[in-house]
Amino acid sequence: MDSSVLAPALSVVGLIVVAIVSVGLLTGNLPSIGVGPGSSGDGGPIRTATPSNVVIVDPRADIPGTIAYVKAGNVWLQRGNRATQLTTSGHDAMAAFSPDGAWVYFVRTTPEAGSWRINGAARRFRLSTPTLMRVRPDGGGEPEAL
Q1: Residue 64, pLDDT score
Q2: Hey, is 30 helix, strand or coil?
Q3: Residue 66 CB coordination number (10 Å)
Q4: N or C: which terminus of the chain carries fewer CB neighbours within 10 A?
Q5: Is 55 helix (H, G, I), strand (E, B) or coil?
Q6: Measured between alpha carbons, how far is residue 83 from residues 5, 45, 57, 98, 145 in Å?
Q7: Residues 136-140: contacts with CB within 8 Å, 24+ apart?
C-alpha cells in the first residue's frame, strides 16, 4: 500500500479508537473484565447505587478509634465498621476533631444574595459565606456556629 494513503488511513482509525474510548470514559460504560467477587460476568463494570446520604462500610473494616469525614457536604463519623451522619445541610466541609475530642469542627458554606448600587441602579450578586461550626461527636444537639 502506498504510504501517502496508509498514513491518513491509520490516523482515521486512531481517531475512531480515541473517540470510542473517550465516550466510554465520559458515560461510565467502558468495558472491563469482571473477575472479582460480585462480578456480573458480562464484562462490564459493576455498578452500585449508593445515595449521597448513605455510607456503606465494608463489614470487615475495623478502624481503631474514630475518623471524621465529609460526604456530599455532610459530616460523618466512622467507628469500627459503623458510620454515623452528624449533619444534613449538604454545605459542610473540612471536618476535624477538637484536641480534647469533645467536638467535631467543620466549615459550613451558606449561599447568599447581595446587592449594591452603581449609578443609581441596583446590581445583584451571589455570595458564599463560610462559617466555623461545631457539633458533638455523639450526635447530640444541633450544630452551632462559632
Answers
A1: 84
A2: coil
A3: 14
A4: N
A5: coil
A6: 61, 26, 7, 19, 24
A7: 136/102, 136/103, 136/104, 137/66, 137/68, 137/77, 137/86, 137/97, 137/101, 137/102, 137/103, 137/104, 139/84, 139/86
CB count in 10 Å sphere of residue 92: 23
The structure's pTM equals 0.59
| 3-state SS assignment for residue 38 | coil
Q: How many helices (DSSP H) and strands (DSSP E) are in the chain?
A: 1, 7
Q: How far apart are CA 44 and CA 32, in angstroms?
A: 5
pLDDT at 12 over 70: yes
Question: Beta-carbon neighbour count of residue 4 at 10 Å?
Answer: 7
Per the structure block, which three cell numbers stand in for 6?
A: 496508509
pLDDT in the model for residue 52:
63
Give DSSP secondary structure letters for 66-105: EEEEEETTEEEEEEETEEEE---SS-EEEEEE-TTSS-EE
- What single-letter amino acid sits at 101? G
Task: Give the C-alpha separation, 64 to 56, whole Å.
Answer: 18
Measured distance CA(75)–CA(135) in Å, rounded: 10
Reading the block at residue 88, the C-alpha cell is: 444534613
Element (H, E) at 22: helix 3-27
**82-85 and 92-97 beta bridge pairing:** unpaired
